[in-house]
Write a structure and sequence with these properties.
alpha/beta; three-stranded antiparallel β-sheet; 24 helices; 21 strands; metal-binding
Length: 739
């Protein structure tokens, strides 16, 4: 028996109840490898001295087998367990070997299990000691039939049946992929476009490429308004075609563009074309999206200040540009792991991310079916997709970093290039001589890719093979037009480590690698931190612009404090808005689950919305043409009490409407000239509206005169009510402007 059982059983019942005068439950989780068909038989009988009662059982099939949950019932008197006059009975599972299919035998539940089947039993009790003695009674049977059994006891206070991520059937949750070549995409529960964005329509504007005559269809979202002066507002949109069968994939909008250029040029990259003076279809496409001239786009790409991530094999791509002279972009991360997710779920995450505004996506898969998962993502992604190739390379050597070789890494690069990956994150700046610099850090090396390279460097006492073979990597990227995101493998993982020697040493090496890439016409962006307090952020931006020759900067936040686990989408969005206003071109989003666990759909949405706010705030600070249009339209709608327009112009219309309707949920409230914050008498905007109306009716010539008159009248009301700021009876207060 585990020590936990022994320690708990040694405590007296009275002593335990003095310490824990609450309802307590014991939870036992059992894992085993059955060599034959096995089952749990749940029997409605056991020693009556137990103070546990379990009268119902739920059979729930999960990913790899069967779970049996014991739920709290009532005894024959109808009292709660532990409060009954007569002692209740405890149903205890026993382990049996059977060879029959699952059957239901009345009060018994028998089910065949599979390899690594988890079985969970939850019992609720007021007498912990009795629970332990009951568990002890059948433990020998468990260990005899299941030698690899793992038992764990937890004792939360005042707990009912536990509701966890594992036993909630959430929207979009899918079972593991059975056939990676034929996923069950019908399981995907997508969100209709109009449900997410009411009163909006997906539109396309057409443009003709000057040299080839190809028609370009550029997407945008049109928000239809109730304003007679402005019937609609057009917004940037990355959601891609909706209602497309994932098995068919998205339309190949770039096929004719790519086919006509194939084999005609020394190198096949947007930078190469731009330096030759060519305006490609991709350049004109992004110019239409950004509201800028195609020539300006070409010049920025040629200079290296902007990149268009567009692998020639990603034909489904709707091109966009990353550069500090353009709208700030945000990246979302998805990817399966060794224990979670499926192909279906990853495609759904892709659709979910693009719906809410992700500009690029990184597939960080490390689990099963990596190649097939990425293939389905590529064929269904309208936005650029990036990867960290070292992750898949590590899987090919069974997770042993020391066994990595350049040959394995090169093979992985070509494999992903053929699939259409648009940009690679490669931590080529983690040099052998930089690794010792991290010894004095509080959090060491926090980058997964950086730690893999560092471990390899130290074990072999050789230079980073990605650095040594940088020219070979550039040749691959030049052939497929893959952009390089030079990883910051030594980024700070805490405020304490911000702007240290190792971080900036790697950044200087990034600058050298950037210039070498430009010699081969390969597009580059530089990755940045990390965890950086506000006062140290400007130094990061200055150094990157100087050392990396103004290549686009791509940062993870940065997080501006370490004290808010669960809210790191906020701590990082603060830093993201700051550094983007200084020139960062793309922001990698952070979810509320950062440092805590894998994000779910709600976390992904929260992270994207937080970063859309940060990116837009930076666009306003940079005074980009048209950036303020949405703010002005929403402010006008707010002042005119057009509630539906306020909701629909927001980043998340559904949430905005829901918050409003919590206190004012009637249809009439959608036309009311107040909200629940101030009420009908103290709405500042209503008062201002009344002042203006009063001015018009009484012949005041200018707003200033009207405002002064209105303020004088409201001052009289204030004095008449005893100079009170807050009144008990606001219903009887007369607004002189309405009198």
């Amino acid at each position: 028996m585990p020590d936990a059982f022994t320690r708990l059983a040694s405590k007296s019942h009275d002593a335990m109840m003095n310490v824990l005068d609450f309802e307590i439950f014991a939870e036992i989780r059992i894992l085993w490898r059955p060599t034959t068909a096995c089952a749990w038989t749940v029997l409605d009988s056991y020693p009556s001295h137990s103070c546990l009662s379990t009268s119902t059982y739920l059979l729930d099939r999960i990913e790899s087998g069967v779970s049996i949950f014991g739920s709290v019932g009532r005894d024959s008197t109808g009292s709660r367990a532990g409060q009954a006059a007569a002692p209740p009975r405890l149903s205890i599972p026993h382990f049996h070997k059977i060879h029959q299919p699952p059957v239901n035998l009345g009060t018994k539940i028998i089910a065949i299990s599979r390899v690594y089947t988890p079985v969970t039993m939850i019992f609720k009790t007021l007498a912990l000691l009795s629970a332990i003695s009951s568990v002890s009674a059948f433990a020998p049977s468990l260990q005899r039939h299941a030698p690899s059994t793992i038992l764990r006891v937890s004792t939360p206070i005042n707990a009912d049946l536990v509701t966890t991520e594992s036993n909630i059937k959430k929207p979009g949750r899918t079972k593991p992929t059975i056939d990676p070549f034929n996923p069950e995409f019908e399981l995907i529960q997508g969100v209709p476009y109009n449900d997410a964005f009411p009163n909006s329509t997906k539109e396309y504007k057409t443009a003709t490429h000057a040299e080839t005559g190809h028609e370009l269809k550029v997407p945008f979202r049109r928000v239809h308004l109730e304003d007679p002066d402005q019937p609609s507002l057009d917004l940037y949109d990355t959601s891609g075609p909706r209602d497309v069968d994932p098995k068919q994939g998205l339309p190949k909008v770039r096929k004719t563009w790519v086919d006509e250029r194939e084999g005609k040029f020394e190198r096949y990259t947007q930078m190469h074309f731009a330096r030759r003076g060519m305006i490609t279809e991709e350049m004109q496409y992004v110019a239409e999206r950004e509201g800028m001239s195609a020539e300006f786009v070409r010049s920025e790409v040629a200079r290296g200040r902007a990149i268009i991530c567009s692998n020639k094999n990603h034909l489904e791509l709707e091109p966009q540009i990353i550069g500090r002279m353009f709208k700030v972009k945000i990246n979302a991360n998805i990817g399966n792991s060794a224990i979670t997710s499926s192909i279906e779920e990853e495609v759904e995450k892709l659709q979910w991310s693009t719906l809410w505004g992700a500009d690029t996506l990184m597939d960080l898969s490390t689990g099963k079916h990596i190649h097939q998962t990425r293939e389905w993502i590529m064929r269904n992604s309208p936005i650029p997709v990036g990867t960290v190739p070292i992750y898949q390379a590590l899987e090919k050597v069974d997770g042993i970093a020391e066994d990595l070789t350049w040959e394995v890494f090169r093979e992985t690069l070509i494999e992903q290039a053929e699939q259409g990956v648009d940009y690679f994150t490669i931590h080529a700046g983690v040099l052998l001589r930089y690794v010792p610099m991290t010894v004095s850090r509080k959090t060491g090396i926090v980058s997964r890719g950086g730690s893999i390279h560092a471990k390899w460097n130290i074990f072999h006492h050789k230079e980073n093979f990605a650095y040594e073979h940088w020219d070979d990597i550039l040749e691959i990227c030049a052939e497929y037009d893959i952009a390089l995101s030079i990883g910051d493998g030594l980024r700070p993982g805490s405020i304490y480590d911000a702007n240290d020697e190792s971080q900036f040493a790697e950044l200087m090496t990034q600058g050298d690698l950037t210039r070498r890439a430009w010699e081969k016409d390969v597009q580059v962006m530089n990755e940045g931190p990390g965890h950086v307090p506000l006062h140290k952020i400007p130094e990061n931006m200055r150094n990157q612009l100087d050392w990396c020759n103004e290549a686009p900067f791509y940062t993870l936040g940065p997080l501006t404090t370490d004290i808010a686990p669960g809210y790191d989408h906020i701590t990082s969005a603060i830093g993201a808005a700051n550094i983007a206003s200084l020139g960062t071109a793309m922001l990698c989003y952070v979810t509320p689950k950062e440092h805590l666990g894998l994000p779910n759909r709600d976390d992904v949405k929260a992270g994207i919305i937080a970063y859309k706010i940060a990116a837009h705030a930076a666009d306003l600070a940079k005074e980009l043409p048209g950036a303020q249009d949405r703010d002005d339209s929403l402010s006008k709608a707010r002042f005119e009490f057009r509630w539906n327009d306020q909701f629909n112009l927001s980043l998340d219309p559904v949430t905005a409407r829901a918050f409003h309707d919590e206190t004012l949920d009637s249809d009439a409230s959608k036309t009311s000239h107040f909200c629940s914050m101030c009420g009908p008498k103290f709405c500042s905007m209503k008062i201002t509206e009344d002042v203006r109306q009063y001015a018009e009716e009484n012949g005041y010539g200018v707003d200033e005169e009207a405002i002064q008159k209105g303020m004088d009248l409201m001052s009289e009301v204030y004095k008449e009510n005893g100079n009170k700021l807050y009144l008990d009876d606001i219903e009887n207060v007369v607004n002189p402007l309405e009198a």
